[in-house]
Amino acid sequence: MPKLGRIAYVLLHVLVTLQQAHSNCEEWTSIDASDYSQTFVTVTAANASLTRPLGYMPMRVKFGDSTKPCVTVKDTSGNGRHYEVSIDSPSGTACIIPPGEESVCTNAQLSKCDQIGTGSTMTFEFDCKSCEGSTVNFWYRIVIESATDGNYDENWCQTRTPSYPISLKSAGNNAVIPTPLDQDPGGSSAKLLMQSQLLTFLLVFSISFSEQ
Q1: Which listed site, 105, 206, 209, 210, has its alpha carbon 20 to 30 Å from 156?
Q2: CATH classification at residue 153
Q3: Do the beta carbons of residue 91 and residue 59 sit within 8 Å?
């Protein structure tokens, strides 16, 4: 086989392999921001993927897997359109790899916003860093810009305010603590009052008896 033919064969094989790998990707389902859940759950909770706090989904990455978990976002075409991808990783360093870009990693919270390239779909891959022999669970969310009057805002990324599920936990800790009730209504305070009233009665009674 000529050298050029071998190169073309290798490139075709790589392309087919990538297409097969991405065909197994989960499809991202977006939620309107007005419908975001404000309920905090842990990323490993059984109902995490149903609750979806602030529109996030849980992801689990195990070190050493032959293929990286991935998510495909459909209907992303549009001139000048943007995407935002966010990670909230409470248990380790998680990485997300936007199509055609370097991975971005965090062991806390991170948001990346940029303009979408060509094509009608986007595929994001996930990985972990310094996680040899372990599994990393984290939250992720992908937001695709919606057009306004048929146009996309070149400053859309600047208008985005990052929000993460961990913030819901902090807000939940600010609950009003009720004043505790007296759990011992017959306790020491009541006994002192009773003794005082009895002493006053005896004093008055003794004075009245001595005057007779």
Answers
A1: 105
A2: 2.60.120.680
A3: no
Q: How many domains does the chain have?
A: 1
Q: Is residue 188 part of a domain?
A: no
Which contiguous run of DSSP H or E holds residue 203? helix 188-211
Return d(Cα 146, Cα 48) in angstroms, integer. Answer: 26
Query: Kind and range of the H or E element at 71?
Result: strand 70-74
Q: Which of 60-69, 78-87, 139-148, 175-184 has the lowest mean pLDDT?
A: 175-184
Task: Report the C-alpha gap between 173 and 180 in whole angstroms.
Answer: 18
Residue 17: its H or E element: helix 3-23
Q: Are 98 and 85 in contact (CB under 8 A)?
A: yes
* Spatial separation of the C-alpha atoms in residues 30 and 145, rounded to whole Å: 11
What domain range is 82 assigned to? 22-162
**Residue 70 predicted with pLDDT over 80:** yes
136, 91 contact by CB (below 8 A): yes
> Is the predicted pLDDT of residue 15 greater than 50, yes or no?
no
| Of 161, 122, 117, the residue nearest 142 (C-alpha) | 122
Q: Are the beta carbons of 126 and 119 closer than 8 angstroms?
A: no
Burial class (CB in 10 A: 0-12, 13-18, 19+), 167: middle
